[in-house]
């Protein structure tokens, strides 16, 4: 797993917040830190927005397409304005919105010939899980275990998120797991 110091975490969170604020016309976009660092590495990430305990947006990528600083900017703006589950963030909401960033490890395929075999390989609380099946795709970050702690329910909810029945199973389904280094602002 990539190492990100507390100082680097704060810088990345500030970068995410400034990207959203700039899009709202409430400030300037922070420049990429000039010193070399983790932000120069191409890494996959998700940016999640909460208002209190309520999800307000979550967008990311499973593959590293950009240096981390640029991925954080893009995913922050997408979480605030392009998550189809929510209306775009308004200027009045920004001060009441907490930002979290999850930096992903590379995905690891899981071979399973049946749901019981899949469930036996999961590490609740640690694994993010991705499902690919034909035109159906979905992922859950490891943080979802906080609300769906039972592995069978976790997999069922992921299938539903992908547009499938909770009881669907096919040996053609492709599963992969990943870890995250997650950090964020205090939701208070």
UniProtKB/TrEMBL annotation:
InterPro entries: AMMECR1, AMMECR1_dom_sf, AMMECR1_domain, AMMECR1_N, AmmeMemoSam_A. Residues 7-188 form the AMMECR1 domain. This is AmmeMemoRadiSam system protein A. It comes from Ferrimonas sediminicola. The gene is amrA.
